[in-house]
Amino acid sequence: MKIGISSGCWYPALTEDSAEKIKNAGYDTAEIFICDESENETDYLMALKNRFDRLGIKIVSVHPYTSFAEQFLLFSGYERRRENAYKYYRRYHNACKILGAEFINFHGATLPVEPEKYAEIYSRLYREAKEEGLTFCQENVRKFICGKASYITELKRILRDDISFTLDVKQAHMEGESLSDMIKIMGKNIKLVHISDHTGDEPCLLPGFGEFDTEGFLNELKGIGYNGHIITEIYSKNCRKESDIRDSQLFLSNLIKKINDGDLRQ
Prior knowledge:
The protein is an alpha/beta fold. Helices cover about 45% and strands about 15% of the residues.
């Protein structure tokens, strides 16, 4: 497993300005949160890639700013809009290719959709991304229908191995879902992890700043064979000072080293 951090941790700072912040926090792996239509343009993306490259930071995943609108774009039932949305989401494929990223995050629908219909829509997005060598990851997000383990179970039953997941710790916690259950259901289809911490009063904190059993969680992931990226993703309001991000990075680095070294001893 390897740790990284999302540029979204500094939102609403400009996306490109997160590069130096990520480097200063000790990370060399990042997820990019595309925050505006202009940030999906080729010239901007090339400049962004160059800025991250100069600092030795690898971009592994992209988070579309259109996540909030996916119910309207893809699940409203208006076929013309849906067809145009498929075309639009292929623009994120281009973003990934320029940035060198493999994974795209997807939130999906907020209103009830029959699992078979949801699977049909997701499947097209998944297949079109796969044709470009990319992985289209359904994320568990609170207040979205895939925030529920029961709905993810249905999608997994229908799609079997033709689905990939981003497992998000804070979203499961705020939705009141068991992370252990999520791990069992998603299983080897987990391709990306968004990590955070929490207390009884604070649902989203930097890893190492709360009461969450981070080591136990990482060992559960290790138990199903997960060996991918662990991406810190919080809201900027949940960080008091920049040095806390560095402290969190050291906390995660030490845990990951301990867990990875454990593999070597077996």
